[in-house]
Amino acid sequence: MDTEGPTSRSELEIEGAGEVGEAPQPLTSSPATTAEPWIVNLTFTGIGARCTASVLTAHWLLTAAHCVDSLAQGALTTVSVSTRNTAGSVVNVYTGNARTYQHTFYGSGLSPDVDNDIAIVRLTGASGVNLGVTGTARLFGYTSPWTSNSTSDREFSIIGYGLSDPGCGGSDSTKRIATGFVMDKESFDVRTIKSSYGSKHTCGGDSGAPWLLTRDGVRAIVGVHSGRYLDAPSFSMKQQAALFPPNRTWMYETSKNTGLMLNCGTVCTERVYDPEPPPGPACPSGFHCCEPGGGTTCNQCLPNSVSCP
């Protein structure tokens, strides 16, 4: 999938590795990697699209909304992962049908809303992804990392299946890593983060790739790669990603309506959605409570056809 993206409406930009006001730190290096097997290559049959995705659970993946703009529901989908850091070393962990759900406020077209360029993919096959091969992602908490004074707290990496040489070869389906720094300050109500372009940059296939922060030796998702864009004031190329944390409620509400609820904290779980019973004291079927007791008990249950005294 082409990673060219429009300019975000957000005014937030990534600052340097040191104090506020230093020059932005560009994306650096992009060696092949087998790190984080839950970062997978997502291919949709029929439209020739290839993006990067993160495995949340056996049946749910996280990617960019623009990756699935023209995708028919129920499309045949292949999920694969690099097993060695050489070209062609991939293993398919899922082949079957999928349904996709873009963020509620995402708008496609010539100027899509980068702030909400997030989608979740439900794999409809019974077994889903082979988690024995991939494992699952960890998600960054709600604390803003860019408010820290520690450089190590702000260093991020991007891992995707399009990161390659400046010529954007990237056709070997090998997963590659690049590093940079998160911003030093934030603005209110901002859902997008940005980085300068660098000598090594994102390419086709990187859309949907996670932007990661490392905590206690574990990489956790802080954003979803949307693409590269021309920054008009500076006339330079930059990277941008939709911040992940603000969208968890949307994911929960969307997924439960499919019957397979996705609930995400630091990690995600899934379960068949069984609507909670209505609150209040319990009475037998056909009765209503006229005198509530403690908790869910009722001291007086009368037939629905009889009014309370």
Features:
about 300 residues; Thrombin, subunit H; 2 domains; 3 helices; about 5% helix; disordered N terminus
What this model shows, in words?
The protein has 2 domains: 232 residues, Thrombin, subunit H (Beta Barrel); 33 residues, no CATH class. 6% of the residues lie in helices and 36% in strands. It is built from 3 helices and 16 strands. It has a 6-stranded antiparallel barrel with strand order 1-2-3-6-5-4. Strands 8-7-10-11-12-9 form a 6-stranded antiparallel sheet. Strands 13-14 form a two-stranded antiparallel sheet. Strand 13 and strand 14 form a beta hairpin.
Percentage of β-strand residues:
35-45%
Strand order of the largest sheet: 1-2-3-6-5-4
Per the CATH scheme, the topology name of the largest domain is: Thrombin, subunit H
Q: Biggest sheet, open or closed, and with what strands and sense?
A: 6 strands, antiparallel, barrel
- The CATH architecture name of the largest domain reads Beta Barrel
Classify the secondary structure makeup into a structural class. mainly beta
- How many domains? The number is 2
Task: Please summarize what this structure is.
With 309 residues, this protein is mostly beta strands. The protein is built from 3 helices and 16 strands.
Topology summary:
Layout: E1 39-44, E2 49-55, E3 60-63, E4 75-82, E5 90-102, E6 119-123, H1 131-134, H2 151-154, E7 155-160, E8 176-181, E9 192-196, E10 210-215, E11 218-231, E12 236-243, H3 248-256, E13 260-264, E14 268-272, E15 287-292, E16 298-303
Antiparallel strand pairs: 1-2, 1-4, 2-3, 3-6, 4-5, 5-6, 7-8, 7-10, 9-12, 10-11, 11-12, 13-14, 15-16
